[in-house]
């Protein structure tokens, strides 16, 4: 017996897209509202090895550490910036400090051996320490960081 | 006389939703990628100082331990505030123990300090001293990238 196959018409199945679009927009809203645009962060390495007695005489090839004194006023703002015997004041003090360090270190070839020791007042606001580290550690040239001093360490804080 | 109303055929316009759905999914993918998964490390109480030399590190630290410091000088470790810096010592010793179980040591770990811009430098130095007592040697001070516009 022959089986008859009925020809089915090309009927379209309409899918209701509304719930999917609803969910997608809810997801989108969620991501937009939870998005927190964070600024990029960077690091400054500091050398703080455990206190150990220095063995033997100092290395003659090593530059002596440059002592940078940061003095604070009563409000914790940076009042005085002194490196060795040079004092830097005014609005461009960090630029002049940078130029001073660049004059000592040179073209950056001594960056790995040069060392800066920060001697800060206890109450000094931390942002001034970062300003000082920025001034002594290097500069931006054509979008690239050129290092001046890689070794930075702290002396014990000075009580006011 | 009766009026005869002609039935008008209602034309159905089908809107092609595909480009809209494509675009929406692309937006979702964009936001998912952009979302900062390291936000847990940040705390609204800590406003970092900014520096033009602060650039994101080229490679992540091998074993970083992030300690934050609020404006009042209170340290924050794993979202827990410590009123006393000495109270951090047991927690840090735990970290050292975990490092030792991984055949590492405190000397190999890096302490990332995220301190508020107006906190006292002495407090940050005291924090470093506490970490040194436990055996940590490598420290980095974190700052926001200063954008020149």
Automatic annotation (TrEMBL), chain A:
GO molecular function terms attached to this record: transmembrane transporter activity
Keyword Ribonucleoprotein: no
Recorded topology in the membrane: Single-pass membrane protein; Single-pass type II membrane protein
Keywords associated with the record: Cell membrane, Membrane, Protein transport, Transmembrane, Transmembrane helix, Transport
Localization (cell): Cell membrane
Annotated InterPro entries: ExbD
Biological processes per GO annotation: protein transport
Any one GO cellular component localisation term in the record: plasma membrane
Family to which the UniProt record says this protein belongs: Belongs to the ExbD/TolR family.
Alphabetized PANTHER family for the sequence: BIOPOLYMER TRANSPORT PROTEIN EXBD-RELATED, EXBD MEMBRANE COMPONENT OF PMF-DRIVEN MACROMOLECULE IMPORT SYSTEM
Protein name: Biopolymer transport protein ExbD/TolR
Organism: Anatilimnocola aggregata
TrEMBL record, chain B:
Pfam families named among the record's database cross-references: ExbD
GO BP terms, alphabetized: protein transport
Molecular function via GO: transmembrane transporter activity
Membrane topology qualifier: Single-pass membrane protein; Single-pass type II membrane protein
GO cellular component terms given for this protein: plasma membrane
Keywords noted in UniProt: Cell membrane, Membrane, Protein transport, Transmembrane, Transmembrane helix, Transport
PANTHER family in alphabetical order: BIOPOLYMER TRANSPORT PROTEIN EXBD-RELATED (PTHR30558:SF3), EXBD MEMBRANE COMPONENT OF PMF-DRIVEN MACROMOLECULE IMPORT SYSTEM (PTHR30558)
Similarity-based family: Belongs to the ExbD/TolR family.
Entry protein name: Biopolymer transport protein ExbD
Organism of origin: Anatilimnocola aggregata
Lineage, highest ranks first: Bacteria, Pseudomonadati, Planctomycetota, Planctomycetia, Pirellulales
């Amino acid at each position: 017996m022959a089986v008859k196959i009925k020809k089915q018409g090309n009927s379209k199945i309409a899918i209701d897209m509304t719930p999917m679009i609803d969910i997608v927009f809810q997801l989108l809203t969620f991501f937009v509202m939870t998005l927190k645009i964070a600024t990029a962060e960077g690091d400054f390495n500091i050398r703080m090895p455990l206190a150990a007695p220095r063995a033997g005489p100092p290395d003659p090839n090593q530059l002596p550490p440059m002592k940078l004194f940061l003095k604070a006023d009563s409000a914790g703002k940076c009042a005085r910036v002194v490196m060795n015997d040079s004092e830097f004041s005014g609005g461009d003090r960090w630029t002049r400090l940078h130029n001073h360090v660049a004059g000592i270190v040179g073209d950056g070839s001594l960056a790995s051996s040069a060392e800066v020791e920060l001697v800060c007042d206890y109450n000094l606001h931390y942002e001034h320490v970062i300003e000082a580290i920025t001034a002594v550690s290097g500069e931006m040239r054509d979008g690239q960081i050129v290092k001046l001093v890689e070794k930075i360490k702290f002396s014990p804080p000075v009580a006011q | 006389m009766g009026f005869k109303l002609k039935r008008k055929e209602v034309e159905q316009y089908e809107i092609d939703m595909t480009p809209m759905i494509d675009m929406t999914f692309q937006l979702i993918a964009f936001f998912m990628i952009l979302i900062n998964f390291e936000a847990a490390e940040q705390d609204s109480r800590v406003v970092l100082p900014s520096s033009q030399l602060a650039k994101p590190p080229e490679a992540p630290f091998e074993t970083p331990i992030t300690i934050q410091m609020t404006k009042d000088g209170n340290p924050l470790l794993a979202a827990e505030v410590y009123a006393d810096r000495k109270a951090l010592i047991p927690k840090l010793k735990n970290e050292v123990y975990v490092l030792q179980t991984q055949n590492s040591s405190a000397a190999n770990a890096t302490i990332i300090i995220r301190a508020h811009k107006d906190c006292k430098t002495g407090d940050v130095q005291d924090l470093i001293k506490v970490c040194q007592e436990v055996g940590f040697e490598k420290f980095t001070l974190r700052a926001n990238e200063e954008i020149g516009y």
